[in-house]
Specification:
By secondary structure, the chain is an alpha/beta fold. Helices cover about 35% and strands about 25% of the residues. It contains 10 helices and 13 strands. A hairpin with a 6-residue loop joins β6 (about 85-90) and β7. The protein starts with 6 loop residues before the first strand and ends in a 10-residue tail after the last helix. The structure holds adenosine monophosphate.
Amino acid sequence: MNIKRPDLLVVGSVAVDWIITPKAEREESVGGSATFFAMAASYFTSVRLVGVVGHDFPKQSLSDFDDAGIDRGGLEIDGEGLTFRWKGRYHENMNDRTTLETHLNVFEKFQPRLPDGYEASEYLFLANIQPSLQYEVFEKMVSPRLVGMDTMNLWIDIARDDLVKVLSKVDVLTINEEEARQLSGEHNLVKAARGIMKLGVKHLVIKRGEYGALLVDHEGNFFVAPALPLEEVVDPTGAGDSFAGGFMGYLARRGVSPNGASLRTAMIYGSVMASFCVEGFSYDRLKGLSVAAIQERFHTFAKLTDFSHANLLD
Ligand code: AMP
């Protein structure tokens, strides 16, 4: 039986990256915030992708999107231009990275267009992209049940006002640790979180790379999810977007509004998808996963922090 899952619309970057890690390098590595998000979320619900690529975008990736069941009716192919390109180098610790080059290319004049019916999608994720474009898409939606968004240091630097305008409208902001500090001007993460909530964010997820992720809900409650201790991280690119894909995908699949229990489970599914992502370059490991593999890793996460049988001191 084919069950119709809720529609989760994502708008964001679809990119060709050049990734350099201390151990390896991939020059044409398909990436982009919406790519990782969509691949991860596709295991949970039906995903609609809005973005733009140029004539150089690999055809193989278009068919990978199709194989994953991603509706790419909103992915424009601009025959005149080149795909957004980003080049980054990871430091020895694989957590920090330096952006070496960013070429907006077709993103420079991109106007997101939603195919018929997309504006009625129940779930929306505004993946990392110019905040003004995120806002444009948000404004077109009819009445989404849940809206999430992500951003990055570049936009905090050059488009802060636009960014604050969007984040005050959404239900969940996912952001990484350094960006949280930059946005709030606070080094301590608890203070940073409180500062960001004051900008109008309802639920906040701070992604901390190999240290996991921190949730602050609308009542100010904290929850932490670990990252999977891995012997080898091949390429951390897209971990944050894959996290968001698992997180939003789970909430959409369950059709739930964010509440304590659903957000906590979503945090673990986010961590599960991020852990797969970093095991390979690009979305290599997010392709062709079985539901059983996802469930097994979910249980591995549950065991990681299960101390309910621990003895109390007497
Ligand atoms: P993450 O590792 O989750 O931060 O995501 C990395 C992805 O973000 C890469 O695949 C890049 O193509 C993409 N990216 C890098 N810079 C930007 C930008 N300024 N706007 C949108 N996407 C970007």
